Amino acid sequence: MKEYLKEKEGLTPLLAQEEAARCLLCLDAPCSKACPAQTDPAKFIRSIRFLNYDGAIDVIRINNPLGGICARVCPTEKYCQKGCIRAGLDRPIDIGALQRFITDYEESSSYKALEPAKEKKDRVAIIGSGPAGLTAANFLARNGYQVTIFEKHKKAGGYLTYGIPSYRLPNEVVEKEIKHTLDLGVKIVYEQEFGKDISLDSLFVEGFKAIILATGYDSPRMIPAFLNNPYVETAVDFLSRVKNCDGKVALPDNILVIGGGDVAMDVATTAKVLGVKEVTCVVREDKEHLPASKKEFSEALEENVSVITGFNVKEVHENKVTFVGSNENITLNYQADKIVLAIGQKPSELPLNIEFDKDNLPVKNYQTEIKGLFACGDITDGDKTVVSAIKKGKEAAIEVMKFLEEKQNG
Amino acid sequence: MVKNVDISLDFLGVHFENPFVLSSSPVGNCYEMCAKCLDEGWGGVVFKTIGFFIANEVSPRFDNLRKEGTSFVGFRNLEQIAEHPLEENLRAIKRLKENYPNKVIIASIMGQNEKEWEDLARLVTEAKADMIECNFSCPQMTSHAMGSDVGVNPELVKKYCQAVRRGSKLPILSKMTPNQASMIPSSLASIEGGADGIAAINTVKSIINIDVDSFVPVPSVAGKSPVSGYSGKAVKPIALRFIHEIHSCPELKDVPISGIGGIENWQDAVEFFLLGAGVLQVTTAIMQYGYRIIEDLTDGLRHYLARHNFSSLKEIIGLATKNVVPAEDLDRTFVIFPKFVSEKCVHCGRCVVSCFDGGHQALTFTEERKVVLDKKRCVGCFLCANVCPVNAIEKGEKVLKKDLGR
Ligand SMILES: Cc1cc2nc3c(=O)[nH]c(=O)nc-3n(C[C@H](O)[C@H](O)[C@H](O)COP(=O)(O)OP(=O)(O)OC[C@H]3O[C@@H](n4cnc5c(N)ncnc54)[C@H](O)[C@@H]3O)c2cc1C
Ligand SMILES: Cc1cc2nc3c(=O)[nH]c(=O)nc-3n(C[C@H](O)[C@H](O)[C@H](O)COP(=O)(O)O)c2cc1C
Ligand code: SF4
């Protein structure tokens, strides 16, 4: 049985050494090619194999400032482990577990892979402290830029802090990982909302030479039929409410979750872990096209969540929902004490004179059409993953540096 | 990041950008191989041993010793010296030095008589090698006038070192065989003959596996196999013992040593330095994993030096020598009892089995699978800690034997 506040144990040194020894040390390793953030698992696994743990820390931190978070939340089956050649022999190397072993080891040692830059270059403002904003800040600070992050919430981390449940990603881990970036001299100012407390003009006037928008997909999607229904809560509201009070919430006996992605699985598993007797997910897609990752789906099943696939919402009356099967002639009536909608997120309204392309802020090489305004993370191409936000944060930082250097050189 | 830790080393008057070189073997068999390894970061190479004698090699020529899931615990080979013509090898050495002027190119040579040793020394000097290594140590030569049969004969070693000294002014390393009770006589003979340093060890004479169905040792060459050289991780303890023997010998204590035998990672390397070795050489780990192991060797060494606040590699050479003492000098007055860390224990009972069957019957296992220590029986041998899979057994209380009535 899972506990809400307790993540599973990491590998012991013996098990880590054994897992690293399973690695085939492939030439031109496919695992490294498959990591969007270029965390280079083949290289750090080899360093573990040859007992060079500090070297493994370097490989992870230089490439991925949030490596300890990725170790816990990356859908590795879709990335590095998908490429693993060992999978053809028995099962892939547990790359996430090895990455966690090294970043946990790092926390217990005094070694630091990254040091603050000596020079002081231009000031850059970043809006939003999710993985995209944090990563951009880390790369800019390492290169001498003076970075301030403006965050509308009381805490940093975006969905790392307000979304992903504690049993997968405890807040202490998020705080420690963020500290690596703060130690480079990055400042975060809290409860500063872009559009309310600050604007593009105010930031430029204050002396910031470039601005990066990394505000994510921070508002939930709605189905109009559920609007103003007192039984309904959105997935991200539910998860952040639960995480904020360390799981100490009163919940009813029966919860209906609508949606079949990772967020829906997080809601369902969280509810089960917190003692809700019956949790049912009703999913529009059929079983083969379930959007959730295998890992999250099987975790939900382990907690005895019921998952019904291939049903769409037809009607809603207070706490009674009628679903219709994909072939239209089966209907399903469900009555729940509480309904959680997990049908995805979208960006919230921003006071910008830029037309969004569907829900995405259009960018070219991370530059928006406003000079000096860059964007990265979910806001540029949607509800993705932490590691893709990291990749984009890193690449956006490089574009900002190019822009500022060109400006400097006239 | 540890970019700034200096791991360069001056050895026999030659500057090595890092202390790791290929040892003489097929890993440095030709120009292309050596060029690739230097590009990947090795500090230098000892080119595969060359001579007027051209080896006619067998197939297959390798086998490895396994234990449980681990391959390459040790490695056995049937190779002799270079298979390529002498002129081709000399050209390769010359080209390497031309194209890699900042790397160290060491020529390993082996003659069949004084004249050949002297001529080879002259030829490799003309090819612009930085250093010469005399191979007195291959255990599987087809002629008894060469290899380890020479290396165990101090008179021959001295005579051939003198011949090499006549042929060249370059620094000379004499590469020793571990197939002798002590390396001191042949090492002293080398220095008397004109060598400047000692390289140790070459491979250990061995038979590692026998095919139990056909009764033929592996590798089987048409149903037969000789006694031949063993290398890799398993020989590291033997190599370290000989490095220590040389470095702690008063007449040899200032003689530079190039350490060889079972080096795979930075920790192995540091052990060699701590016992007095300078430049280190590697073969088997490269045969198993490739030249790329240099990345974690150099990086791991830098991290180690930085963690311990050393500013150069020189500072650690020989630091462990004084802690290796004769058995009669050990303090035999106390017993340390094992401490069982209950949070780590996985209750497998392996310690209990080993303590009874190989120790002193001091551990019992309760119904609840808890380990209980009987201090009256425990002698503090720590076999239990050696078999524990999770390091749950630590050093505990230290008690004087007289207080225990022992
Ligand atoms: C419940 C849940 C579980 C998830 N699980 C996983 C998982 O296991 N693995 C995985 O890889 N991905 C997962 N994801 C997706 C992942 O969290 C996101 O893709 C990622 O966080 C996007 O990063 P970001 O930096 O673009 O945006 P966000 O993380 O959304 O961060 C945006 C930040 O901007 C701030 N902000 C927004 N508007 C303003 C404003 N106007 N002014 C100031 N600040 C503002 C927000 O407060 C927030 O801190 C999950 C998402 C959710 C919701
Ligand atoms: C296949 C093979 C061939 C070797 N050939 C030579 C050689 O030609 N000359 C030599 O001096 N040593 C030779 N050696 C010995 C190595 O240089 C080295 O001394 C020994 O293998 C121990 O080091 P290691 O454990 O790193 O392999 C050979 C070793 C192997 C495995
Ligand atoms: S692909 Fe798999 S086997 Fe190859 S290096 Fe990566 S983890 Fe190891």
Give a concise summary.
The complex is a heterodimer of chains A (410) and B (406). In chain A, the strands form four sheets. Chain A has a five-stranded parallel sheet, sandwiched between helices. In chain A, strands 6-13-7-8-9 form a five-stranded parallel sheet. Chain A has 16 helices and 15 strands.
Keywords:
heterodimer, A: 410 residues, alpha/beta, Fumarate Reductase Iron-sulfur Protein, Chain B, domain 2, FAD/NAD(P)-binding domain, 3 domains, 5-stranded parallel sheet, 16 helices, 15 strands, 37% helix, globular, B: 406 residues, TIM Barrel, Alpha-Beta Plaits, 2 domains, 8-stranded parallel β-barrel, 4-stranded antiparallel sheet, 12 helices, 30% helix, binds flavin-adenine dinucleotide, binds flavin mononucleotide, binds iron/sulfur cluster
Structural overview:
The complex is a heterodimer of chains A (410) and B (406). Chain A is 37% helix and 16% strand. Chain A is an alpha/beta fold. Chain A folds into three domains: 13-108, Orthogonal Bundle (Fumarate Reductase Iron-sulfur Protein, Chain B, domain 2); 123-218 and 347-409, FAD/NAD(P)-binding domain (3-Layer(bba) Sandwich), CATH 3.50.50.60; 220-345, FAD/NAD(P)-binding domain, CATH 3.50.50. Chain A has a five-stranded parallel beta sheet with strand order 3-2-1-4-15, sandwiched between helices. In chain A, helix 3 packs across helix 7, helix 4 crosses helix 7 and helix 5 runs antiparallel to helix 7 (95-108). Chain B has 406 residues and is α/β, with parallel strands linked by helices. Chain B folds into two domains: 9-323, Alpha-Beta Barrel (TIM Barrel), CATH 3.20.20.70; 331-404, Alpha-Beta Plaits (2-Layer Sandwich), CATH 3.30.70. Chain B is built from twelve helices and 20 strands. Chain B has an eight-stranded parallel barrel with strand order 3-4-7-8-9-10-15-16, surrounded by eight helices. A four-stranded antiparallel beta sheet of chain B has the order 5-6-14-11, with no helix packed on it. In chain B, strands 1-2 form a two-stranded antiparallel sheet. Chain A binds chain B through residues 12-14, 21, 25, 43, 46-47, 50-52, 54-55, 58, 62, 111, 113-115, and chain B through 1-2, 69-70, 264-267, 289, 292-293, 295-297, 299-300, 303, 307, 389-391.
